[in-house]
Design a protein that fits this description.
This protein is mostly helical and 292 residues long. It is built from eleven helices and two strands, in the order ααααββααααααα.
Length: 292
């Protein structure tokens, strides 16, 4: 029973990282129908920026803020300079561009920062909580990760539902041509969507890096698992992205704890294939009727 509790709570905090990546992919997919294969690389690059700030200022929170801000800027720049020229072109163009961007960003990271593994400081202690002699399987850092992603997701939900900006984002995602006729400046809205996606990716990079080493390819697997979480929840659903991340994180932690860490990556692939075969639209699919 103790092991089950440890694996479950540990999986929740890990799943929140997958959820952040999944949310970034959902934000972009809803607005542009583009799957950004460079999302993980963008998260890695902003995490390097945060690490430089932390090393120079010895202030974790300043590095955190700079990472989120750089994610916003990078997302907007990528949409304006790289993705927008592929608009109204064959869909394969955008796929090739984002894959090329992935290679470019990882190559630049290797040139600028080198290929050595670097440790990233946690915001809080990584020593797990205990009740008496019972280990809970989650640390203050894991609790911080869970709360940070949930607050970010809740903030995004409030923006979508109760603000004019959120209404424009939803209208553009539903039908950009109609939104444009109604006076929505869809170009700016799409840029904002990519910027928010960049910020969520940066959040995931900062939160996952204390438990892994930071290097140019460090977020490749995180991106794959974040994509799996998005598929589990449905690429149309922000709520599904969060739930998909939770489900995947707990599932993979069970696999790691009970069967061995070597089976975690294959288990993630099996989960992706199973969802694509049994429910391609995801658990929260909106394929029948797409609502604003």
């Amino acid at each position: 029973m103790q092991e089950f509790l440890e694996f479950t709570l540990g999986g929740v905090s890990q799943g929140m990282v997958y959820a952040a990546i999944a949310l970034s992919l959902v934000l972009i997919w809803r607005g542009t129908r583009v799957l950004n294969y460079s999302q993980g690389a963008m998260a890695m690059f902003t995490t390097y920026v945060a690490l430089i700030v932390i090393n120079h200022t010895h202030n974790y929170w300043l590095g955190f803020v700079v990472a989120i801000a750089s994610g916003l800027v990078l997302g907007a720049v990528v949409e304006r300079g790289v993705i927008r020229p592929t608009t109204r072109r064959p869909p394969l163009n955008a796929v090739i561009v984002t894959i090329g961007l992935l290679i470019l960003i990882e190559g630049l990271a290797g040139i600028i920062y080198g290929g050595s593994f670097r440790s990233f400081p946690p915001g809080y202690s990584v020593r797990g909580f205990n009740i008496g002699h019972v280990a809970l399987g989650i640390s203050p850092e894991g609790l911080y990760t869970t709360i940070a992603v949930l607050l970010a997701a809740a903030g995004l939900a409030l923006v979508f539902r109760y603000t004019a900006v959120g209404l424009r984002l939803r209208a553009t995602a539903f039908n950009p041509d109609v939104a444009r006729l109604l006076g929505v400046r869809t170009g700016r809205v799409l840029t904002l969507g990519w910027a928010l996606a960049g910020a969520f990716g940066a959040l995931a990079g900062v939160l996952v890096s204390p438990t892994t080493f930071l290097y140019p390819n460090s977020t490749d697997l995180i991106f794959v698992l974040g994509f799996t979480a998005a598929v589990i929840g449905g690429l149309e659903s922000p709520l599904g992205a969060v739930i998909g991340g939770l489900v995947l994180g707990v599932l993979l932690n069970y696999v790691s704890g009970y069967l061995g860490s070597d089976l975690v990556d294959p288990a993630g692939l099996v989960a992706l294939v199973a969802v694509l075969m049994l429910r391609p639209g995801g658990l929260f699919s909106m394929s029948t009727v797409r609502r604003v």
